[in-house]
Specification:
The structure holds 3 protein chains of 3 kinds. By secondary structure, chain A is mostly helical. Chain A has 12 helices and no strands. Chain B is 70% helix and 0% strand. In chain B, helix 3 crosses helix 13, helix 8 packs across helix 10 and helix 10 packs antiparallel against helix 13. In chain C, helix 2 links the parallel strand 1 and strand 2. Chain C has 17 helices and 12 strands. In chain C, helix 9 packs across helix 17. By secondary structure, chain C is of the alpha/beta class. Classes of the chains: A mainly alpha, B mainly alpha, C alpha/beta. Chains A and B meet through helix 1, helix 3, helix 4, helix 5 and helix 6 of A and helix 2, helix 5, helix 6, helix 7 and helix 8 of B. Chain C: It holds the Pfam family SBP_bac_1. Chain C: Keywords: Cell membrane, Lipoprotein, Membrane, Palmitate, Signal.
């Protein structure tokens, strides 16, 4: 029985690693090598990494990614947590409507709003700036954040708020002193989920960030694929580079991540 | 008594004002503009257009591609929701046992989420490719004829649903693992003493107490699946013809390639309405089933 | 503990805000410093191109040289790759165009209303007569600087053609005969044409090539009917039927619906396909995989009786100037720099195409011999650019996929063409 379980465990591990094996193989094979995707490169080369790094200005792109993702995540967490408190604690008809309004923002198709949004950002002078990219990202990650935070807060016993109000805290102080510190675990979850979305965002970034000096990794890599030319192995290499920082962050936040969900959100 | 204490909590509503401001500027305003576009024959880039009333909505309803696309979208949405939840829960149950290296395996199952879906789509395209695809390579080892996996519309839809599931089941699994950990162990102990078998424990304890996790997963997966875009673009580009397109890819195609921005906007509004109804209904229904401990 | 966490989050916020602020401040400082330092007004030109890879490097190098020669002008180069057209459409809608941009074949029909007239430029006099009509209109407005001119036709693998004892086919019947020979002699291992149909546009390319001999180049043609909108679309049925028949006979790659352009390049490079219905650029892409590939360029075979083969032509690498650009003088200067003989020549060479200016000598590398050999072959404009309204391309492609997948027949193909043709023409 134990052996069976461990064989299943190994099998799951291997199956889920296959795409990464293929990705790594692509990144390490020279362009001329068209052998089967299963064969690990015999004449391994770092050329794809070097080319991707230089041609796509990935050092700059990494910095841009960190700035945009970092700032967005901070704002997402702050604004999201703030908004979720009244929405989950005081479920009046009006607030329930606001809650559903927030959820439906998750559903709006990006393309229907793309052109009006872009024109507006042009008028605000925000094309090729960090702030416009950050504000856009924050907006589109907030619904998910509110969805997760409200679920979590409703699992925090109301007695805590009441105890706080007896201690003489006003309503805002209750949030900052009592609720906010309890949100730590779910915050790890929000950081991972929304941070990844922002880190990998392409659909808005390709339009908002066109200058090399502000480009993020997905935008920078898109120049390797055009109608008539493909440098898919460079894209693969760039993708591996782009994955590393988030993987490390994930490993770091992982223990909070599972706890975050265990502690609250899923208790409803 | 309680009412009085929380009487004037309306003041706290100011806490969601910043979020609403963001939505108002970056979503509501452009969204209303989008509704306006759906009543025009705009080509998506020039400065001229005229209002055509409901023509684009009528186009949408009479276009046979809309219905292929619609049924594909439903399969993407519900298919991947079902698969992600069943597999995610199965994995979570399996990885909740006392096993060494289960943390590592959980991480591995979660890893695909980190890659952008577009790249994930490209990687899987290399699996299902006809000439030199990873799967056909293996079939050739056994002397089987190569199959052009993605050429057949319904099969391509199935494959894309699978790829989407593969990529995002890690999220579902993680949420279920967290849910399982929050169930007090003594519930199971009591049940064992009563002689309940695994299945009745699962049915009577695990499942009801997992309802909040199920709500989160189902709602997120339905929205994600019904909006599916990147994987389709990378694998089939919605083809052959419109055989594997989703509402998102069809809209993109109409907007940029066909230069029918009015039609694209009409389809987008329809898609918004459809997903909103489906996901909010499931949210409300599932919330009702949640039991409080 | 509680406090610590709060302070950490505040700190992160502060650091990040500081970082962002620094980022934008840094840039602001740079431009204002230089502005103060020099008497001349500094300008920054935004330049955008659809071209990527080797060709983009050539364009970028010239831009760098330009900046050295004109220290007061800074050039911001962007090459978004496959999403170039989409980003440009969004930019047009928002009237926020780059100062200088590439028009990839659509200077008049799509970008026309956003382009400044360049006919007053010194280089305008050197415009090659064969490209002139593609980039100017009746009023004499010159839309762009064409650095090269497309001369497109199918490409073929010279060694394979020799191996099968075949000549370059001149008519479609000869082409079909050649395809049959290839199929039998290679035992189905090598296909006549490889098309990466999953990308859709390669299918459109086939239709775009073949529509010219079918409808335009022969003495009895439908050119005028298409232009004035009186075309009888049942005449179009034959074209999708030809496409379908070619597929049914097994002359295309079997996975035409699921393979991509990159797969075409791979198949052509590895000698698994004899012809490529793309253009000269296809040879280069294949050579990245197999540098020893021996490939040539041929004109599009004729279809109608008494007709001759033709090339498809028009603009390829161009620079246009946004008419509302705030730096219009600098932008024109930038464009004029590319019109210098050595620069135009370098750009045309990187595309292996004839230059767009008659003052520049042709140097298309290995393909020069083909341009010399076929110098009397007529060059007709790409079918869709002249005879179809802008936006029809996708209809060609998607219906092409559909007919192979069995979703529609040739008649419905033409019907769908007609419907979209009328919608898009009405919009104009």
């Amino acid at each position: 029985m134990r052996t069976l379980k461990y064989s299943i465990l190994t099998l799951i591990g291997i199956v889920h690693l296959i795409p990464f094996y293929i990705l790594l193989g692509m990144a390490l094979k020279p362009t001329e090598d068209t052998s089967s995707k299963w064969i690990f490169p015999t004449n391994m080369t770092m050329d794809n990494f070097v080319n991707a790094w230089n041609q796509a200005h990935l050092s700059q792109a990494l910095i841009n990614n960190v700035i945009i993702t970092g700032s967005s995540v901070v704002l997402i967490v702050l604004i999201g947590a703030l908004a979720s408190y009244p929405l989950s604690r005081f479920q009046t008809k009006w607030n329930q409507f606001i809650y559903l309004l927030c959820i439906s923002c998750m559903i709006v198709p990006a393309l229907t709003i793309l052109v009006p949004l872009y024109s507006m950002i042009v008028d605000m002078g925000g094309i090729n700036t960090y702030w416009a990219a950050i504000l856009t990202q924050v907006t589109f990650q907030l619904p998910l954040t509110i969805f997760l935070f409200t679920g979590f807060i409703s699992s925090v016993p109301r007695e805590l708020d009441e105890a706080g109000s007896i201690d003489g805290c006003n309503k805002f102080m209750i949030f900052f002193r009592i609720i906010l510190p309890l949100l730590k675990p779910i915050t790890a979850t929000v950081i991972i989920l929304t941070g990844l979305n922002v880190w990998n965002d392409y659909q808005f970034s390709i339009f908002l960030l066109q200058k090399v000096s502000v480009q993020t990794i997905p935008v920078a890599l898109s120049q390797f694929i055009s109608q008539f030319q493909n440098q898919i192995s460079w894209v693969a290499a760039g993708c591996v580079i782009g994955m590393l920082p988030v993987t490390i962050l994930y490993l770091f936040l992982q223990k909070y991540f599972i706890r975050g969900l265990a502690d609250g959100a899923v208790k409803g | 008594m309680k009412k009085k204490m929380w009487g004037s909590s309306t003041i706290l509503n100011v806490m969601y004002v910043p979020a609403l401001l963001f939505f108002a500027v970056f979503i509501f305003y452009p969204f209303i503009e989008g509704i306006r576009i759906s009543f025009t024959n705009w080509d998506g880039y020039s400065q001229q257009f005229s209002y055509v009333g409901f023509e684009k909505y009528i186009n949408m309803l009479t276009d046979k591609n809309t219905w292929t696309t619609m049924s594909n979208t439903v399969i993407y949405g519900f298919g991947s929701t079902l698969l992600q939840n069943v597999l995610g829960l199965a994995y979570a149950l399996f990885l909740d046992q006392q096993l060494r290296a289960k943390g590592l395996v959980r991480t591995i199952v979660y890893l695909p989420v980190i890659i952008s879906s577009l790249i994930m789509g490209y990687i899987w395209y290399f699996f299902f490719q006809f000439d030199g695809g990873a799967i056909n390579d293996i079939m050739a080892l056994f002397g089987a004829q190569p199959v052009d996996w993605l050429a057949n519309g319904p099969r391509a839809v199935g494959i894309i649903t699978f790829v989407n599931t593969f990529q995002f089941m890690g999220v579902a699994m993680t949420i279920y693992v967290a849910g399982l950990q929050s169930i007090p162990k003594d519930y199971y102990e009591a049940a064992s003493i009563d002689g309940a078998n695994w299945w009745s424990q699962f049915k009577n304890i695990t499942l009801p107490l997992l309802m909040p996790a199920i709500t989160i997963n189902v709602v997120l997966n339905i929205i994600g699946g019904l909006k599916l875009f990147d994987v389709i673009v990378a694998m089939t580009n919605g083809g052959p013809g419109y055989a594997s397109s989703s509402l998102s890819t069809m809209m993109y195609n109409l907007y940029f390639a066909r230069q029918d921005a009015g039609y694209a906007a009409a389809l987008g509004n329809f898609m918004f309405l459809f997903i909103a109804i489906v996901s909010i209904t499931s949210l409300i229904l599932l919330k009702r089933k949640e039991v409080k401990i | 503990m509680r406090k610590k966490w709060l302070s950490i989050s505040c700190l992160t916020l502060a650091v990040v805000t500081a970082l962002t602020a620094c980022g934008s401040n840094g840039e602001g400082d740079k431009s204002s410093n230089t502005a103060d330092g020099k008497a001349d007004k500094n300008v920054t030109l935004t330049v955008s191109t659809n071209v990527v890879g080797e060709q983009a490097t050539v364009l970028q190098d010239i831009a760098n040289k330009f900046m050295t020669d004109n220290p007061t002008i800074k050039v911001e180069f962007s090459a978004p790759g496959k999403d170039y057209e989409n980003t440009m459409k969004v930019k047009m809608a928002s009237k926020d165009m780059p100062d200088v941009f590439a028009t990839h074949g659509w200077s008049k029909n799509r970008y026309g209303e956003y382009l400044a007239d360049l006919s007053g430029e010194a280089w305008a006099a050197d415009l090659d007569p064969s490209i002139k009509s593609s980039v100017t209109d009746e009023s004499g407005k010159l839309y762009v600087l064409p650095m090269d001119q497309d001369k497109s036709g199918p490409v073929y693998n010279i060694d394979l053609l020799k191996e099968y004892g075949l000549e370059v086919p001149k008519t479609y019947d000869e082409f079909l005969a050649a395809a049959e020979v290839i199929k039998t002699k290679s035992d189905g291992k090598v296909v006549a044409i490889h098309i990466g149909g999953a990308d859709a546009w390669p299918i459109g390319q086939w239709f775009d090539f073949m529509a010219t001999p079918m409808l335009i180049s022969a003495e009895q043609n439908s050119a005028q009917a298409l232009l004035d909108g009186t075309f009888d679309w049942t005449k179009f049925d034959e074209l999708p039927q030809m496409f379908k028949d070619f597929y049914d006979k097994g002359y295309f790659n079997k996975d035409i619906l699921t393979s991509k352009y990159s797969d075409s390049a791979k198949a052509f490079a590895e000698g698994k396909a004899v012809f490529g219905f793309y253009g000269p650029y296809f040879i280069e892409e294949a050579k990245n995989i197999n540098p020893n590939l021996n490939a040539g360029l041929m004109p599009i075979p004729s279809i109608q009786a008494n007709d001759t083969p033709t090339f498809a032509g028009g603009e390829k690498t161009t620079w246009g100037v946004w008419k509302d650009s705030k730096n219009i003088e600098a932008a024109k200067k930038f464009v004029a720099y590319y019109a210098q003989a050595e620069n135009t020549s370098a750009v045309a060479k990187s595309n292996q195409l004839p230059p767009g200016l008659s003052s520049v000598k042709i140097d298309a590398g290995e393909l020069t011999t083909y341009y010399e050999k076929y110098k009397d072959t007529p060059v007709l404009p790409f079918f869709d650019r002249v005879y179809l309204p802008n936006g029809m391309w996708d209809v060609l492609c998607k219906n092409g996929q559909d007919i192979l997948a069995g979703g529609i027949d040739a008649r419905q193909y033409s019907e769908n063409m007609k419907k979209e043709f009328e919608r898009l023409s009405a919009n104009k």
